[in-house]
Amino acid sequence: MQHCDPEDLALLALGETPDGVDAASHVEHCELCQAEVRELSRVVTIGRSVGIDDQLVAPPASVWAGIKAELAKDAPEIAGESAAAPASNVIPMPARKRRSWLPTAVAAVMCLVLGGVVGGVIVKSNEGGTPGSPVIVASAALEPVPGGPDPQTTGVAKLELVDGEYVLRVDASGLRTPDGFYEVWMMDPENAGLIAVGSFNANQASATFPVPAGLPITSFNSVDISDEPFDGDPGHSKVSVLRGTLTA
Amino acid sequence: MRSAQPVALLPRESCDTQRVSEQLVADLGRRMVSGDESALEQIYAQWSSLVYTIALRSVRNPDDAADITQAVFVSAWRSRATFDPDAGPISAWLVGITRRRIADHYRAPAKNREFATDQSVEAPTLVEDSESVSVVDRVVLADEISRLGPPTDQVIRLAFYSDMTHSQIAEHLDVPLGTVKTQIRRGLSKMRARLEVTDAAL
Ligand SMILES: [Zn+2]
């Protein structure tokens, strides 16, 4: 028996009538397709019941601080640490606590294994080690897009983790004056996904942009800067200036 | 945006983004189990909103929800050895811990002498609401929709919350009909899978 196209079953679950006239009548007599529609209908029912209250809300920043403080109590005191008093006069306590949150050799090994595969959730290093300094998760060299309007300039994008939230830092100085304005995008090249994270001023050397919570950063691993006309169209102008792929 | 494909920058053609992404999330779990504290910060960055929102919708008090969220991630770290990457994803494991910390929250007053011990039976808002759709299912789906990424999330939102049919959505977004159908199917399948793994981690 020829079963329904899975895409038609999804439409039936939404309460639509698919174009294929036979789909509905087939499902009536086919338990397999019926079960599929039933399962997808449950998803639709729950999905449609999602209200504004159910939209995700980020916890206050104090929560992450509280977690760190509570877990710091678990950390075994390293013998002799208090003996290193002169050093700890130089490095304030928070810095040392912070350091226990830095990536370990495990992360370093993971970087070797997976580094360069895809911009990912792999911490590289926190060179400075100063309190509150961002952890660089991935970075991208931004290169001029071939045939683009500015073949000379380059830049760097870094995905940073600051107090439990991702931000994208873009450094690009010497960009020529745009025809419109520069917009920074994160792209999912595999699925042609695209989100704008903010606009970038040609005369600023550096800017940071919050990354929307929940954005699948492992697939949105391409950073693009485009020249956008002031036409009110929120879509990409297709005039890309710089681009690069985030890698760990 | 054909030029959007940075194919040359990807080292291997066999490197399917979706698989790599899943693998990296699985690696987060393994790194956490092995005691890598930086993994916890990344897990927090990915899923603290999910945990907090479930708590907030259940106990309806921001301070209590913040306390529960803190307790969830502290428990997650301390009991990291119990996380089994083969049993399900981290998000589902965290939701399971969240349910237990919310239950603890309702149980806590029972420790006061004035209250009978069966106070704990009342964990009201965690269970089904009037529409018999649980808070957890709704928030998990809201989270999954936001993780579908464009353009799937947009297509799903229009299919769910507008009166448009799929062909009207195609017209509205100026994309082929087949693309909309594919995105709807992809979105619903991913949401079903997410509900399945979350329920399995109960
Ligand atoms: Zn069938």
Description:
The complex is a heterodimer of chains A (248) and B (202). With 248 residues, chain A is an alpha+beta fold. Chain A contains 7 helices and 8 strands, in the order αααααααββββββββ. Chain A has an 8-stranded antiparallel beta sheet, with no helix packed on it. The two termini of chain A are 49 Å apart. Chain B has 8 helices and no strands. Chain B has helices spanning 17-33, 37-59, 62-78, 90-107, 135-148, 152-161, 166-173, 177-200. The longest helix of chain B has 24 residues, at 177-200. The model of chain B is unreliable at 1-20 and 110-131 (pLDDT under 50). Chains A and B meet through α1, α3, α4, α7 and β5 of A and α1, α2, α3, α5 and α6 of B. The complex binds zinc ion (ZN). Zinc ion (ZN) binds at residues 3-4, 26, 30, 32-33 of chain A. Zinc ion binds next to α3 of chain A.
Essential attributes:
A: Immunoglobulin-like; 3 domains; 29% helix; 24% strand; flat; B: 202 residues; 2 domains; 8 helices; 0% strand; disordered N terminus
- How many separate domains of chain B? 2
Gross geometry of chain A: flat
Number of strands of chain A: 8
Biggest interface, which chains?
Answer: A-B, 86 and 82 residues
Please name the fourth-level CATH homologous superfamily of the largest domain in chain B: RNA polymerase sigma factor, region 2, helix turn helix motif
CATH topology group of the largest domain in chain A: Immunoglobulin-like
Task: Report Rg of chain B.
Answer: 20 Å
- Stretches of chain A where pLDDT is under 50 for at least 5 consecutive residues are 77-131
Largest sheet report of chain A: 8 strands, antiparallel
* Range of helix content of chain A: 25-40%
Compute the number of strand runs of chain B.
Answer: 0
The helical percent of chain B reads 55-70%
Low-confidence stretches of chain B: 1-20, 110-131
If classified by CATH, what would the architecture of the largest domain in chain A be?
Sandwich
Give the assembly state of these chains.
heterodimer
Q: Please tell me the overall pLDDT of chain A.
A: 75
**How many distinct folded domains of chain A?**
3
The main β sheet of chain B shows up as: none
